[in-house]
Amino acid sequence: MLQERVPRQPDDPEFCYVWPLSQARAAVTELLAGLDAGGPDAGDASAVEEADAALIRAQEHYWYPEGGSTGVPGYTAATNSEQGANGDFFDDDNDWIALLEIEQHLLTDGAAGDLERAVELLELLRSGEATDPGLPSPGGIWWTQADWNDDRNTVSTVPAAKLALRVHQLTGDAAALEDALRWLDWTRGALLSPEGLFWDNVKLDGTIDRTFWACNQGVPLATEALAHEITGDRVHRDRALDLVAAIEEHCSPLEEGGPLDEQPLQFTAILLAGMLHAEALLGARVGGRRTVQAVAERLWRTRRDPATDLVTGSR
């Protein structure tokens, strides 16, 4: 199990919330991909594989088969040694975990990664779609099933669309493709800004949180590129390339001290992963490798702790 922070703080939970655990597993999945590309030596490979297995075991302590408010099974936000899985259901948490299962399934030709669990989580996300036609900007997926929040977010809706595209790609589920395209269209209609970047969420009264988070650009970019690969429709390629241009103009990812350097590191990582995925599908014009190299070198030079070689948190 992981703890929330190092060093542990007095008000920290016994074990970390499922969001940082999912991102730790995402990092390990990237390292596993590097192993297949001839990266670390055998000793390092063994350590990465052991870390991956440990994180998967830890993840299952958050599984709640009884389901949340919709009654569909999923992962809760928290777990501890007394209660087990507990807390609120967040649809974006379940997005990330489902996508990790898909990524590992693809990475290993089905030897790892739980495709059945990913399909099960797609049902949870379907149950989280807002269906009331009287809502402002009807549609989208609620950020959480908790009754203290009524936001529909880019980060809950577009990763679900990416998941649905992958499920369609792997299983032939036609309804999953319909879901994915509807969720993409909703996000563009409700949360695409005039600058070409995606805002964060729309609230129950129609108010829009106009924050530009890096993760809210990276996932739509990769998802539009994947939609182009699956459907062949050029509109998805054009949308992806338009988003690349907006990221370059408004986030200045190649510049030290630019807007991207003010983002939380985990959000930056999601943007960079999305750029690499889009580049793999659409070609070098996306600039993913160039951007990743520039950001990595900048972080190593300006924000690395020389005692540990770890990059410190957000500015």
What is the strand and helix layout of this fold?
Layout: H1 18-36, H2 42-59, E1 63-64, E2 74-80, E3 84-89, H3 91-107, H4 115-127, E4 152-153, H5 154-171, H6 174-191, E5 201-202, E6 208-209, H7 215-231, H8 234-251, H9 265-282, H10 288-302, E7 304-305, E8 310-311
Antiparallel strand pairs: 1-2, 2-3, 4-5, 5-6, 7-8
Brief sketch in words of this structure:
It comes from Brachybacterium rhamnosum. The chain has 315 residues and is mainly α.
Widest sheet, order of strands: 1-2-3
Largest sheet: 3 strands, antiparallel
Sheet/helix structural class: mainly alpha
Report the total helices: 10
| Percent in helix | 40-55%
Notes on the protein architecture:
- The protein is mostly helical and 315 residues long.
- Helix content is 54%, strand content 8%.
- It has 10 helices and 8 strands.
- The protein has helices at 18-36, 42-59, 91-107, 115-127, 154-171, 174-191, 215-231, 234-251, 265-282, 288-302; strands at 63-64, 74-80, 84-89, 152-153, 201-202, 208-209, 304-305, 310-311.
- The strands form 3 sheets. It has a 3-stranded antiparallel β-sheet with strand order 1-2-3.
- A hairpin with a 5-residue loop joins β5 (201-202) and β6 (208-209).
- α1 runs parallel beside α3 (91-107), α5 (154-171) runs parallel beside α7 and α7 packs antiparallel against α8 (234-251).
- The longest helix has 19 residues, at 18-36.
- It is globular.
- The model has no long low-confidence stretch (mean pLDDT 94).
- InterPro entries: 6-hairpin_glycosidase_sf, Glyco_hydro_76, MUG_Protein.
- This is Glycoside hydrolase family 76 protein.
- Keywords: Hydrolase.
- GO terms for molecular function: hydrolase activity.
- Pfam families: Glyco_hydro_76 (PF03663).
